[in-house]
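C-alpha coordinates for chain A. Residues wanted.
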Protein backbone atom coordinates (compact mmCIF):
# COMPACT_ATOMS: atom_id res chain seq x y z
CA UNK A 1 0.00 0.00 0.00
CA UNK A 2 2.73 2.45 1.02
CA UNK A 3 4.79 1.68 -2.08
CA UNK A 4 1.90 2.59 -4.36
CA UNK A 5 1.32 5.79 -2.37
CA UNK A 6 4.97 6.79 -2.68
CA UNK A 7 4.75 6.10 -6.40
CA UNK A 8 1.85 8.55 -6.64
CA UNK A 9 3.69 11.05 -4.44
CA UNK A 10 6.70 11.42 -6.73
CA UNK A 11 4.34 12.17 -9.68
CA UNK A 12 5.72 9.66 -12.21
CA UNK A 13 4.02 11.34 -15.18
CA UNK A 14 6.24 14.38 -14.66
CA UNK A 15 9.54 12.47 -14.47
CA UNK A 16 10.07 12.51 -18.23
CA UNK A 17 11.11 16.13 -17.64
CA UNK A 18 14.26 14.73 -16.01
CA UNK A 19 14.96 12.02 -18.62
CA UNK A 20 14.30 13.88 -21.88
CA UNK A 21 16.93 16.66 -21.59
CA UNK A 22 19.64 14.12 -20.73
CA UNK A 23 18.66 12.02 -23.75
CA UNK A 24 18.72 15.04 -26.06
CA UNK A 25 22.05 16.19 -24.65
CA UNK A 26 23.46 12.70 -25.22
CA UNK A 27 22.16 12.65 -28.79
CA UNK A 28 23.80 16.02 -29.43
CA UNK A 29 27.10 14.58 -28.21
CA UNK A 30 26.84 11.85 -30.84
CA UNK A 31 25.75 14.30 -33.56
CA UNK A 32 28.74 16.52 -32.74
CA UNK A 33 31.15 13.66 -33.37
CA UNK A 34 32.05 12.83 -29.79
CA UNK A 35 31.99 9.40 -28.18
CA UNK A 36 28.97 8.83 -25.95
CA UNK A 37 29.71 7.51 -22.47
CA UNK A 38 26.40 5.91 -21.56
CA UNK A 39 27.35 5.48 -17.92
CA UNK A 40 27.54 9.28 -17.58
CA UNK A 41 24.12 9.72 -19.17
CA UNK A 42 22.68 7.00 -16.94
CA UNK A 43 23.97 8.58 -13.72
CA UNK A 44 22.87 12.03 -14.92
CA UNK A 45 19.36 10.69 -15.53
CA UNK A 46 19.20 8.94 -12.16
CA UNK A 47 20.40 12.04 -10.33
CA UNK A 48 17.89 14.21 -12.20
CA UNK A 49 15.08 11.75 -11.43
CA UNK A 50 15.89 11.93 -7.74
CA UNK A 51 16.13 15.73 -7.69
CA UNK A 52 12.77 16.04 -9.40
CA UNK A 53 11.18 13.44 -7.13
CA UNK A 54 12.51 15.24 -4.07
CA UNK A 55 11.29 18.58 -5.41
CA UNK A 56 7.83 17.08 -6.00
CA UNK A 57 7.73 15.70 -2.46
CA UNK A 58 8.79 19.00 -0.89
CA UNK A 59 6.11 20.70 -3.00
CA UNK A 60 3.50 18.18 -1.82
CA UNK A 61 4.28 18.70 1.85
CA UNK A 62 4.87 22.44 1.85
CA UNK A 63 1.90 23.38 -0.35
CA UNK A 64 -0.31 21.50 2.09
CA UNK A 65 1.28 23.23 5.07
CA UNK A 66 0.82 26.66 3.46
CA UNK A 67 -2.82 25.94 2.63
CA UNK A 68 -2.41 25.83 -1.15
CA UNK A 69 -3.59 22.21 -1.41
CA UNK A 70 -7.14 21.85 -0.11
CA UNK A 71 -10.23 19.86 -1.03
CA UNK A 72 -11.04 22.66 -3.50
CA UNK A 73 -7.93 21.83 -5.54
CA UNK A 74 -8.69 20.84 -9.15
CA UNK A 75 -5.54 18.84 -9.77
CA UNK A 76 -4.71 15.21 -8.90
CA UNK A 77 -4.77 14.27 -5.23
CA UNK A 78 -1.65 15.11 -3.25
CA UNK A 79 -0.66 12.54 -0.64
CA UNK A 80 -0.18 14.97 2.24
CA UNK A 81 -3.48 16.67 1.50
CA UNK A 82 -5.22 13.29 1.27
CA UNK A 83 -3.58 12.13 4.53
CA UNK A 84 -2.13 9.12 2.74
CA UNK A 85 1.25 10.07 4.15
CA UNK A 86 2.09 12.43 6.98
CA UNK A 87 3.85 15.75 6.50
CA UNK A 88 6.93 14.36 8.26
CA UNK A 89 7.00 11.20 6.11
CA UNK A 90 6.87 13.19 2.88
CA UNK A 91 9.55 15.58 4.14
CA UNK A 92 11.88 12.69 5.04
CA UNK A 93 11.16 11.10 1.66
CA UNK A 94 12.20 14.31 -0.08
CA UNK A 95 15.48 14.42 1.85
CA UNK A 96 16.11 10.76 0.98
CA UNK A 97 15.61 11.51 -2.73
CA UNK A 98 18.07 14.40 -2.53
CA UNK A 99 20.61 12.15 -0.78
CA UNK A 100 20.25 9.61 -3.60
CA UNK A 101 20.72 12.40 -6.13
CA UNK A 102 24.05 13.28 -4.49
CA UNK A 103 25.16 9.63 -4.54
CA UNK A 104 24.34 9.24 -8.23
CA UNK A 105 26.16 12.51 -8.98
CA UNK A 106 29.52 11.34 -7.58
CA UNK A 107 30.72 9.80 -10.90
CA UNK A 108 29.59 12.98 -12.65
CA UNK A 109 31.68 15.12 -10.30
CA UNK A 110 34.77 13.01 -10.98
CA UNK A 111 34.17 13.51 -14.69
CA UNK A 112 33.10 17.17 -14.84
CA UNK A 113 34.80 18.69 -11.79
CA UNK A 114 33.76 21.87 -10.01
CA UNK A 115 31.15 23.04 -12.58
CA UNK A 116 29.14 19.89 -11.82
CA UNK A 117 29.50 20.48 -8.08
CA UNK A 118 28.09 24.00 -8.50
CA UNK A 119 25.24 22.77 -10.71
CA UNK A 120 24.43 20.02 -8.22
CA UNK A 121 24.38 22.34 -5.20
CA UNK A 122 22.19 24.86 -7.02
CA UNK A 123 19.81 22.13 -8.20
CA UNK A 124 19.33 20.88 -4.64
CA UNK A 125 18.95 24.36 -3.18
CA UNK A 126 16.46 25.50 -5.80
CA UNK A 127 14.66 22.15 -5.69
CA UNK A 128 13.82 22.89 -2.06
CA UNK A 129 13.39 26.63 -2.64
CA UNK A 130 10.81 25.92 -5.34
CA UNK A 131 8.25 25.72 -2.52
CA UNK A 132 10.25 26.16 0.70
CA UNK A 133 12.50 28.70 2.36
CA UNK A 134 11.96 32.44 2.89
CA UNK A 135 11.61 33.13 -0.85
CA UNK A 136 9.74 30.17 -2.41
CA UNK A 137 10.09 30.41 -6.19
CA UNK A 138 6.66 29.04 -7.04
CA UNK A 139 5.01 31.57 -4.68
CA UNK A 140 6.86 34.50 -6.25
CA UNK A 141 6.23 33.70 -9.91
CA UNK A 142 9.68 32.26 -10.66
CA UNK A 143 8.66 28.61 -10.95
CA UNK A 144 8.52 28.78 -14.75
CA UNK A 145 12.07 30.18 -14.92
CA UNK A 146 13.32 27.44 -12.57
CA UNK A 147 11.92 24.71 -14.83
CA UNK A 148 13.32 26.31 -17.99
CA UNK A 149 16.79 26.60 -16.48
CA UNK A 150 17.15 23.29 -14.67
CA UNK A 151 15.03 20.97 -16.83
CA UNK A 152 16.09 22.57 -20.09
CA UNK A 153 19.28 24.58 -20.38
CA UNK A 154 21.27 23.09 -17.49
CA UNK A 155 20.21 19.44 -17.87
CA UNK A 156 20.77 19.40 -21.64
CA UNK A 157 23.89 21.57 -21.66
CA UNK A 158 25.27 19.82 -18.59
CA UNK A 159 25.01 16.43 -20.26
CA UNK A 160 26.84 17.80 -23.29
CA UNK A 161 29.50 19.35 -21.02
CA UNK A 162 30.08 16.07 -19.17
CA UNK A 163 31.01 14.36 -22.45
CA UNK A 164 32.90 17.18 -24.15
CA UNK A 165 34.21 19.54 -21.48
CA UNK A 166 32.57 22.58 -23.05
CA UNK A 167 29.22 24.24 -23.78
CA UNK A 168 28.00 24.85 -27.33
CA UNK A 169 25.39 27.00 -29.04
CA UNK A 170 23.71 23.78 -30.17
CA UNK A 171 23.33 22.63 -26.56
CA UNK A 172 21.81 26.01 -25.69
CA UNK A 173 19.21 25.78 -28.47
CA UNK A 174 18.35 22.16 -27.66
CA UNK A 175 18.06 23.11 -23.99
CA UNK A 176 15.68 25.93 -24.85
CA UNK A 177 13.49 23.64 -26.96
CA UNK A 178 13.19 21.02 -24.24
CA UNK A 179 12.98 23.62 -21.48
CA UNK A 180 10.12 25.49 -23.13
CA UNK A 181 8.06 22.31 -23.38
CA UNK A 182 8.86 21.34 -19.78
CA UNK A 183 7.73 24.80 -18.68
CA UNK A 184 4.39 24.23 -20.42
CA UNK A 185 3.64 21.66 -17.70
CA UNK A 186 4.01 24.14 -14.84
CA UNK A 187 2.25 26.89 -16.81
CA UNK A 188 -0.84 24.72 -17.41
CA UNK A 189 -0.77 23.55 -13.80
CA UNK A 190 -0.68 27.14 -12.54
CA UNK A 191 -3.39 28.29 -14.93
CA UNK A 192 -5.66 25.49 -13.73
CA UNK A 193 -5.07 26.47 -10.09
CA UNK A 194 -5.23 30.24 -10.58
CA UNK A 195 -8.25 30.73 -8.31
CA UNK A 196 -7.06 28.61 -5.38
CA UNK A 197 -3.51 30.00 -5.69
CA UNK A 198 -4.85 33.55 -5.55
CA UNK A 199 -6.65 32.75 -2.29
CA UNK A 200 -3.39 31.73 -0.57
CA UNK A 201 -1.33 34.54 -2.14
CA UNK A 202 0.64 32.15 -4.32
CA UNK A 203 1.74 34.65 -6.97
CA UNK A 204 2.30 32.47 -10.01
CA UNK A 205 2.46 34.07 -13.46
CA UNK A 206 -1.23 33.23 -13.91
CA UNK A 207 -2.08 35.01 -10.66
CA UNK A 208 0.19 38.00 -11.30
CA UNK A 209 -0.75 38.70 -14.91
CA UNK A 210 -4.10 37.00 -15.39
CA UNK A 211 -5.61 34.17 -17.38
CA UNK A 212 -5.30 35.82 -20.82
CA UNK A 213 -1.58 36.50 -20.35
CA UNK A 214 -0.98 32.97 -19.09
CA UNK A 215 -2.65 31.50 -22.17
CA UNK A 216 -0.38 33.63 -24.38
CA UNK A 217 2.62 32.39 -22.40
CA UNK A 218 1.57 28.78 -23.03
CA UNK A 219 1.07 29.53 -26.74
CA UNK A 220 4.63 30.89 -26.93
CA UNK A 221 6.10 27.96 -25.00
CA UNK A 222 4.35 25.47 -27.30
CA UNK A 223 5.35 27.09 -30.59
CA UNK A 224 8.86 28.40 -29.88
CA UNK A 225 10.52 24.92 -29.91
CA UNK A 226 9.25 24.35 -33.46
CA UNK A 227 10.44 27.79 -34.62
CA UNK A 228 13.86 26.97 -33.20
CA UNK A 229 13.87 23.97 -35.53
CA UNK A 230 15.05 26.36 -38.24
CA UNK A 231 18.35 26.60 -36.34
CA UNK A 232 18.98 22.89 -36.92
CA UNK A 233 18.10 23.25 -40.59
CA UNK A 234 20.61 26.07 -40.99
CA UNK A 235 23.22 23.98 -39.18
CA UNK A 236 22.62 21.07 -41.57
CA UNK A 237 20.83 18.83 -39.06
CA UNK A 238 17.86 18.20 -41.32
CA UNK A 239 16.37 15.26 -39.42
CA UNK A 240 16.63 17.09 -36.10
CA UNK A 241 14.68 19.93 -37.70
CA UNK A 242 12.00 17.83 -39.38
CA UNK A 243 11.23 14.83 -37.15
CA UNK A 244 9.81 16.85 -34.22
CA UNK A 245 7.19 18.28 -36.59
CA UNK A 246 5.39 14.93 -36.23
CA UNK A 247 4.30 16.07 -32.73
CA UNK A 248 2.79 19.32 -34.02
CA UNK A 249 -0.73 17.87 -34.02
CA UNK A 250 -0.57 17.63 -30.21
CA UNK A 251 0.35 21.32 -30.07
CA UNK A 252 -2.69 22.26 -32.16
CA UNK A 253 -4.95 20.17 -29.92
CA UNK A 254 -3.52 21.76 -26.77
CA UNK A 255 -3.85 25.32 -28.03
CA UNK A 256 -7.45 24.74 -29.10
CA UNK A 257 -8.34 23.18 -25.77
CA UNK A 258 -6.70 25.86 -23.63
CA UNK A 259 -8.18 28.75 -25.60
CA UNK A 260 -11.62 27.13 -25.65
CA UNK A 261 -11.86 26.42 -21.92
CA UNK A 262 -11.61 28.45 -18.76
CA UNK A 263 -9.33 27.08 -16.03
CA UNK A 264 -11.04 23.99 -14.63
CA UNK A 265 -10.53 20.28 -14.01
CA UNK A 266 -10.37 19.69 -17.78
CA UNK A 267 -6.87 21.19 -17.62
CA UNK A 268 -5.72 17.90 -16.10
CA UNK A 269 -6.26 16.39 -19.56
CA UNK A 270 -4.22 19.20 -21.10
CA UNK A 271 -1.47 18.52 -18.58
CA UNK A 272 -1.29 14.89 -19.68
CA UNK A 273 -1.15 15.96 -23.34
CA UNK A 274 1.63 18.42 -22.55
CA UNK A 275 3.65 15.66 -20.85
CA UNK A 276 3.13 13.46 -23.92
CA UNK A 277 4.22 16.31 -26.21
CA UNK A 278 7.37 16.91 -24.16
CA UNK A 279 8.28 13.23 -24.42
CA UNK A 280 7.40 12.93 -28.12
CA UNK A 281 9.27 16.06 -29.15
CA UNK A 282 12.33 15.10 -27.11
CA UNK A 283 12.46 11.56 -28.48
CA UNK A 284 12.02 12.75 -32.06
CA UNK A 285 14.68 15.44 -31.66
CA UNK A 286 17.07 12.91 -30.09
CA UNK A 287 16.43 10.37 -32.87
CA UNK A 288 17.07 13.06 -35.46
CA UNK A 289 20.36 13.99 -33.85
CA UNK A 290 21.47 10.37 -33.42
CA UNK A 291 20.79 9.74 -37.13
CA UNK A 292 22.69 12.78 -38.38
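Reply:
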Amino acid sequence: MKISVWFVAIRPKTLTAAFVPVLVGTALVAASGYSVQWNLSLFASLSAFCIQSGTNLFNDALDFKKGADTTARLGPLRVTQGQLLSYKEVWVGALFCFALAVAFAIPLIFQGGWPIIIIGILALLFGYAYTGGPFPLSYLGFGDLFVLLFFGLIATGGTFFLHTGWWSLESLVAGLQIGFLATVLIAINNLRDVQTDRQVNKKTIAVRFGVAFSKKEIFFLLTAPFLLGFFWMMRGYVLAALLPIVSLSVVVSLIRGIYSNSPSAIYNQFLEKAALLHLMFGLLLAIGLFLE
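The radius of gyration is 19 Å. The chain has one domain: 2-8+17-291.
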